Structures are given as C-alpha cells and as structure tokens.
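Batch manifest, entry 17 of 40.
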Amino acid sequence: MALRANQQVLNNYYLLYLLQSPTVKSALLRVNRGSTVPRLLKTDLTRLQVRAPSTREQEKIASFLGAVDARL
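Output type: structure tokens
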C-alpha cells in the first residue's frame, strides 16, 4: 500500500515519521484485523486522526529526523 498526503495539509516525509511513532503504531495495532497475519485496511488508515503542526513545522521536523536517520 502506498500513501501520499495532501501536500497542503501534510508533508509526506512527516507522514512517514508520524506512522513510525509509537503512538500511531499503537493506534494502528488496535484496529488491525486478522489473528495469524495482522492486516490493516485503507479505511482504517483514512479514519486515523492525528494532530499535525503547520506544514512549515512539519518540514523542519521531517528534515531533522531525516538528518538523524542519515547519520545512523
């Protein structure tokens, strides 16, 4: 599954890091389906509500986290 954000609302790189955060991971695990092989439906993702800073702040955060990732 590929995700793309509405760029006027959410930076794609910010979305990447947001989906990897413990809070969002936990929320997604609560709504996953299947017992042997957990799966997530697109509707589950589209219902997920998160708070996001301004797009400028998102760019700064994503840039910082990207730089940290590059150093690892």
